[in-house]
Amino acid sequence: MTTIGTSIARLDERKLLTGSGRFTADVWPANAAHAVFVRSPHAHARIVSIDIDAARRAPGVRAVLTAADAKADGLGELICPTSLPGHALVDPHRSILADNNVRFTGEAVACIVADTLAQAADAAELIVVDYQPLASVTDTGRAVGGAQIWPQAQDNISFEWSTGDLAATEQAFAEAARVVSLDIVNNRVAVAPIEMRCAWGRYDASEDRYLLHTPSQGVFFIRDCLAEQVFHVAPERIDVVTGDVGGAFGMKIVPYPEHACVLWAAKVTGRPVVWISERGESFLTDTHARDHVTRASLALDTKGRILALKHDVIANLGAYLSAVSPTVPTLGYAKMAPSVYAVPVMHVRVRGVFTNTAPTDAYRGAGKPEALFVLERLIDTAARDMGIDPAQLRRRNLIGAKMLPYKTAAGQTYDAGDFAAALNEALKLGDKLGFEKRRKRSAKAGRLRGLGCSFYIHGTGGDPDETSKVVAESSGVLAAYTSRQDSGQGHRTVYAQILADRFGIPIDRIDVRQGDSRTVLPGGGTGGSSSLIIGGVAMIAAGAAMIEKARELAARELEVAAPDLEYRDGAFVVKGTDVRLDLFELAARAPQPLEGLAKFAENNASYPYGCQIAEVEIDPETGAVEIVSYLSVDDLGQLIHPAMATAQLVGGIVQGLGQALYEHVRYDPDSGQLTTASFMDYTLPHADDVPSINVAFIGTATKNNSLGVKGAGECGTMGAAPTVINAVVDALAAHGVRHLDMPATPEKIWQALQKPPPAFDADKA
Amino acid sequence: MQWSAPRNDGPSQAAGNTTGNTFIMSDIQYVAPRTLDEAIGAYAAAGSAARILAGGTDLLVQMRSGAVKPGLIVDIKKIGEMTAIEETKDGGFRVGAAVSGMALHDHPRFGKVWPGVLEAINLIGSKQVQGRASAGGNLCNASPAGDSVPALVAAGAVVTVAGPQGRRELKVEEVPAGPGRTNLKPGEIVVAFTLLPRPKGASDAYLRMIPRTEMDIAVVGCGVNLTMKGGVCTDARVGLGAVAPTVLLVEAAAKALIGSKLDEKALEAAARACSAACRPIDDKRGTIVYRTKVAGVLLRRATAIAAKRAQER
Questions:
Q1: Does this model's pTM top 0.90?
Q2: CATH number of the domain at B202-312, please?
Q3: Nearest-10 Cα torsion for A125, A127, A128, A132
């Protein structure tokens, strides 16, 4: 009996809930030495000298490593392996320890390895770095023409990228009855996973092999970058293992200097070397995200129909190009920019800029939430300017179900969906008709009430390179190997559900294996909300290949012709008889492992979408906001495990509303110091800041993949920020507020309510 | 100064690590005396390198971040007087300086008599922190934003301190000297808070403004303590936190309330007095103009709550 569409108990929940998970920081070898990094206290400085003598002589110290040692040992720099086709890009490369200059606060300058963590920390304090401070720039809006960070990057610009039809867009704007423009600052956020980055490395001199154990979103990308760029060895010389992972969200896709350093230090010292990030280090050195300054405009006709859309974006890349970062504010940003609306033409121009900040990179949605936020804010603003109900203006512009398949101005072809149905369901569940009554009731209690509505649509992507292997093991286990990597979502459970459904094997006999470059076949790992599509489809194909191979063997064993055998529920049966041979028994008799391989050969694109509605209440005397209701109506296609799909949406929404109301990575504009390096100052939403979130599904199947599923992971995040800000601005609109940048803190809201509205900039406060 | 990773413990035992990298305390002495005299002796002898440990919810955080490196830690939780809650026959309370928020919460009578003081103490940190955090520690940490202090100031609590020169009593508002500094003399330890018996019709309330709903540092905190008789306010005290280098006793606000029926005019005057008393700073948690305004807003709201509670008593 199939469990597809049923929320069965997660296969890993006992392990994870009882603290029996095996995270990297749980499994480092007892004889490991400890690495501690000396990090830059300056946002930008020249390193005049580094005195390591005292540290080298300190008790227990095995090695003190600097950029000079890296050069002497022939190690290369981290290079950004992604490019922007058709566009030039300045990649200054990143030395694994700062060489000559430090370019952001927290950048690693030296790596100390000692027998104990305490000894390494003590020795770190003995290192004297003579810095000559340089002028710095951290603010996105001031980066162009600000303090020069790289000589090769004029005006701090790494790239200027554009897409769309500029001439047609300009013409549409010239002829439009109405043009609405907004200047939007998309705030920088920290990923702040519960499991911080960490790594331990081992070097086997006799085999000249490295082993790196680290959380990741797929072991091969990190392995290949380290092998090719830093160690100049064949990728097979580096084994990368990932155990359980406590949250990744894009931040753990990429290689970091610490990965290279533990392997290098292991080779230098002859000992395994472990490094586990502190929370302060995590805030300083994990890749951050978002951080755009955007001018965007929407052209409309007299009826409110959208004629054209244009964006001009400055995207903060940080001090170095992290491995995926160039694609995030460009290809990722523009991909879904028209969203669910029939936008005839658009143009997007993006300048990626260097600043003296931690590098930015992908974070749940990777560019798409930024673009959707802009569009949904423009639509609400247009509706207000034109005196049209925002939901009505959205409805007028939706791509109709009958228009599908529909190719958007961004070049995506939406295959399946019913956007109007999602809107109708959301308005019904959200009781839009009763809102004015609720607004009046709130007003009586001295509260300003607002309703915000937004659509999101995601184009799932990720790296489609995947070869799955499925093995029927003689022990009675069906093992499925994938390059995709679970970081808490529950991959094992959904993969087991689809394999059980397809091959009639009990779920408890299915073992999903991931996170080990020695056993898993090379592939792209997790990203782009596509692990179920890519991993699932490839696994089923690999399982089918295994069954066909087994059929030949079974035919020989049973002395019948292969076509006379029928595979059913874990056994081959001779058609029309009760003669059967169990798959696993066959595996025990087989001369070779009973395995099948298959590459992913379907379309990784799917277009999950949804409509979200939030209502907020604002206390005008303090600016405090409460989200009083939140709902999301979503089309994720065929649901495999509704509870986990819901959990993905809820978690994503919380991350989006965190950005909308609370979260902001701030650097002091003068000193370039990170002023939000703890959970006291980087205000993630607490559980009681989050409303009860109501998720409802409307399903339309996609034919882009044989499972009929659409990606789920990034969806909630994409809708939440604009939904919340639209609600906040709706509550404040009667007081003349047209837009508020995130995070909409009580103070910012209160300031906006003061008349005349003062020019308040939280960053300057 | 180098920025380096803060010192921390190694991983759990699951890692099989036996190299002994425990929390680095090798140069720190720890004593847990049973009597106050012993504690004072040890504390005074060690001079400025010593720190008092009650719940440790500030001290351990400061040590971990490297902000303080004490040579001696004097744990006062083994001293009976410091952890006792006594209710006097006439209805007053004497609360040991190391009594945890949770112990006070569980006291059958304290919260009925001093609901504002209790809610302020119970706002320090999370539930887990409440099991340890004490009002004495909150006062001695001398943060302008300490949650329990404005409520204790409003309550007119008296602090007993003991030191090498013997015991003395101070008003709560006399203890903080500035951010992170107190008026305690060398070797002096805060022993207990005394709260006087209160008449019928008296109650209190504490409110704070924070960016989120829990576990944040106050942008403004306001404690109001009222005595009501026949609908008229006969006595009042107002404490304000996070708006000046120390927690303030706002006498002008109290004066505006006393003698009134807490009508709009009196509330407006008291709110204005609170705003006028503010000498806040601009920082990432709030600007001067915002803190000043919110101080008045919280005064009104805390007064309303305290008045309602007073009527019910």
A1: yes
A2: 3.30.390.50
A3: -100
